[in-house]
Design brief:
alpha/beta, Rossmann fold, seven-stranded mixed beta sheet, binds S-adenosylmethionine
């Protein structure tokens, strides 16, 4: 098995965050060359184009959640956005992103836990490659919704295998039914071409008047 294939298998089959981060920490330096050069990783292009078609304000404050080495931030920068922040848990991946000099700020955080970010601060959040097998599960959408402003956008990919196996479809539908977001687009698209892997690419708009999260009072007591 090639070194690239073995590290990719490790990230898809990690049993916990520690194992996952050990694999990403090791992969960080070769990640762009492997995925873009050899594996045909096209999901960042598809998702950033989808967000660009709806997010007309180039001054928008955007969070790249699970930014990794900054591939998505780079594409958004090419599209003319200038207020891009990144968040990831792997320090070596964040170091690669920082070297690209396109992010206004980089945060270290765990997307499976509460984030140290205020409510409603981002105009848009994009997350590519992070909602996949053994990574961040659909429960994390609640926290991303909390930090997106009313009227803002959430754009994300979900690897097709995870979409089917890990209740993404259910959670996406629930959030739509509860009025937490409006699903504008769901594409089925190539993800990593050399593997034949496909993904869902979703664009959601947060209503200008946000419905409260289930269990929260709609008015202060
Ligand atoms: C496949 S990479 C995608 C990186 C980048 N978005 C891209 O498209 O190239 C997944 C990223 O999610 C990050 N990640 C995985 N689990 C995480 C967690 N619980 N919290 C924050 N980041 C996480 C990894 O460190 C890695 O950088």
């Amino acid at each position: 098995m090639s070194k690239r294939k073995s590290i990719h298998d490790r990230v898809l089959n990690a049993d916990n965050l520690e194992e996952l981060m050990a694999a990403y920490d090791e992969w960080a330096v070769n990640y762009d060359d492997d995925l873009l050069g050899e594996m045909g990783y096209v999901a960042p292009i598809i998702a950033s184009n989808l967000l660009k078609d709806s997010l007309v304000d180039k001054e928008a404050r955007i969070l790249d959640a699970g930014c990794g080495t900054g591939i998505v931030g780079g594409l958004l920068h090419e599209h003319g956005y200038r207020h891009i922040e990144g968040l990831d848990y792997s320090r070596p991946m964040l170091a690669q992103a920082e070297a690209k000099d396109i992010y206004q700020a980089l945060h270290r955080g765990d997307l499976t836990n509460a984030l140290e970010i205020d409510n409603h601060v981002y105009d848009a959040i994009i997350s590519v490659g992070t909602f996949t097998c053994g990574h961040v599960g659909p429960a994390a959408f609640d926290e991303l919704l909390r930090i997106t402003r009313p009227g803002g956008y959430l754009c994300f990919t979900v690897r097709e295998q995870a979409w089917d196996d890990e209740d993404y479809q259910v959670k996406v539908g629930e959030l739509e039914n509860h009025g937490r977001w409006e699903l504008q687009e769901t594409l089925t698209a190539d993800y990593i071409r050399q593997e034949g892997a496909r993904c869902k690419v979703c664009l959601c708009k947060i209503p200008s008047c946000v419905a409260p999260a289930p269990g929260m009072a709609s008015h202060p007591e």
